[in-house]
Every structure is written in C-alpha cells, then in structure tokens.
Amino acid sequence: MSDSTLSGGLGVSTAADWFSLLKPRVMSLVVFTGAIGLIVAPTHINPVLAFTAILCIALAAGASGAINMWYDADIDAVMHRTASRPIPAGRITANDALGYGIVLSAISVLLMAMATNLLAAALLALSIFYYVFIYTMWLKRSTPQNIVIGGAAGAFPPVIGWAAATGHVSLLPVLLFTIVFFWTPPHFWSLSLFASGDYERAGVPMLPVIKGPRHTRLNVMVYSVLLLPIALSPYLFGLCGLFYGATALVLSVVFCYYCWRVLTDQQDPQGHSLTNNAPARAAFKYSILYLFILFGACAVDRFI
C-alpha cells in the first residue's frame, strides 16, 4: 500500500470514525474488568475519583487501539474484516490517528496520577507500552505465540482498578490478571480459526496460519482446561465466596464444552472445518459472555 493511501485521507471523517479508532468493543471489556478491580478492592473511593479512574482506563485502552490501527494500517487494508476501518478506507490519515493516540495516552496517564496515585498511573502507562510496543510492534508479526505473550496487555485493567482504589497490589487482582491472561488464547484463537484467511493474506503469523487449524483447536482446548482451576483460584484462596466459586465452575465447564466442540469439529484431511467453523464462532461469542459474567460474579460476591 502506498504512503499516500495511508496518509492522504481521501474521504471525510466523522465522529463515528474517530470513535471507531478507539476499538470500542475491546474497550468495553477492558473498562468492565478495570471497574471490577476497583469495585472489589477492600476500600472506598470517592465516586468522582472512581469514575475518573475508569475514564482513564477507557482513554488508555482507546489510545492503544488508535496507535495499533496506525501501525497496522497496511495489514488492515488487505484483511476483509478490517479494510473498512477509517485509516485504510482513507477517512482518517495515519499521522492524525497516531497523534490522536499519543495525546489520549498522555492525558490518561497524567489524569490517573492526579486523580488517584502514581502506582495506578505507572501501571496504566505500562499497559499502553506493552500493547503498543511489545504486542503490536514486536510480537504480532513475529511469532504465532503473539496472543499468549501479548495477552498480558489486556490483563492489566483489574490490577489498575485495584491500585487506583488502594495504592497497592495484592493477590486478588493478580489472580484476576491471570484469569484474563489464560482466557485470551482460547478466546482469540477461536476467532483466528474463522479469520485465518485474512491473517494469511496479511502475512500475520497467527497459530492456524503457521501450525494449522488442527494444532490451533488442540491449543484452544488445552487453554480452556488450564483456565478452569485458574478461574476458581479466587475462591480456592478464600478471596471470594461460594457464589463466585459456583459461578466460575459452571461457566468454566461450559467453556470447556464449547472448546471441545472446536476440537472435535468436522474436518477435512488438512484439518479445515467442514462446518464453516461454526463451533469456533460459538466458542468466541461465549468467551466474551464468559468473562463478563465471571468478573460480574466477583463483584456480586464482594457485596454478598
């Protein structure tokens, strides 16, 4: 793709285009897990400061998304599911998107430091750095394990929320971090199974492109099994009660069932799905619901 296509901007941008740069669907999950980290913290925080902390997490997540779209504009342009994004479609220039992301990053970190504490601001800055430099610029285009290692970027919010409320980090937010970290591979690899053509076309070394769909299905299953005891760990360590423990067990067993269906999907001799990856699509959708309900149960359990 020519530089003029990525930076010229032939169309007229709208407010919706600038909002889409923030990756709102990803942001919603990040904001939710960050808010849960703040809610379950063993302290009370002024509602205005709590709202400000959550806003900072949202701004940081959106800023990371904007910088990610700036850096990935070349591959977004050749992938069907991303070709209509504002930069490859020419509605926003790459340079404008980069500036937008940098400004939002700075605002989010500075505002977090002023509204809460330096630890929360430092963790917020680290999450931006990890997503932009470790995942986007290094791992995504260099290894099929990009999602495993890069999953840490999306696991920071509950730790940040907790730190914003307390000024320190303890075991529960670390366990919540670990849950998101181990949830990310089966969640994203399910997506990659039915989007592998896009990734192959763009030259992104996702697991199904490099190792094949059969190997990917096995990894989806393995990580879902590993996730089960990790999801139960807040209950097993006595940090959450029976309500959370029962919810985590049921949700995780169902997740394993969805991933088992991914593993046993009807396949041709090369391991490609004969069902249009219907089980993978279902597992991907359930994985989003899984994390929302699981973290919601953690908050409900706190009040119970």
TrEMBL record:
Q: Does the keyword Glycoprotein apply?
A: no
Chain segments annotated as transmembrane: 26-45, 51-71, 92-112, 118-139, 146-165, 171-197, 218-237, 243-263, 283-303
Primary residence: membrane
Transmembrane as a keyword of this entry, yes or no, is: yes
- InterPro entries the UniProt entry points to: Protohaem_IX_farnesylTrfase, UbiA_prenyltransferase, UbiA_prenylTrfase_CS, UbiA_sf
Q: Return the EC number.
A: 2.5.1.141
Q: Which UniProt keywords apply?
A: Cell membrane, Heme biosynthesis, Membrane, Transferase, Transmembrane, Transmembrane helix
Its catalytic activity?
heme b + (2E,6E)-farnesyl diphosphate + H2O = Fe(II)-heme o + diphosphate
User: Which EC class heads this enzyme's classification?
Assistant: transferase
Q: Where in the cell is it found?
A: Cell membrane
Q: What is the membrane topology listed in the Swiss-Prot or TrEMBL record?
A: Multi-pass membrane protein
Q: PROSITE patterns, per this entry?
A: UBIA
Instruction: Please name the pathway.
Output: Porphyrin-containing compound metabolism; heme O biosynthesis; heme O from protoheme: step 1/1
Q: What does this protein do?
A: Converts heme B (protoheme IX) to heme O by substitution of the vinyl group on carbon 2 of heme B porphyrin ring with a hydroxyethyl farnesyl side group.
The entry assigns this protein to a family as follows:
Belongs to the UbiA prenyltransferase family. Protoheme IX farnesyltransferase subfamily.
Q: What else is known?
A: Carbon 2 of the heme B porphyrin ring is defined according to the Fischer nomenclature.
Protein name from the UniProt record: Protoheme IX farnesyltransferase
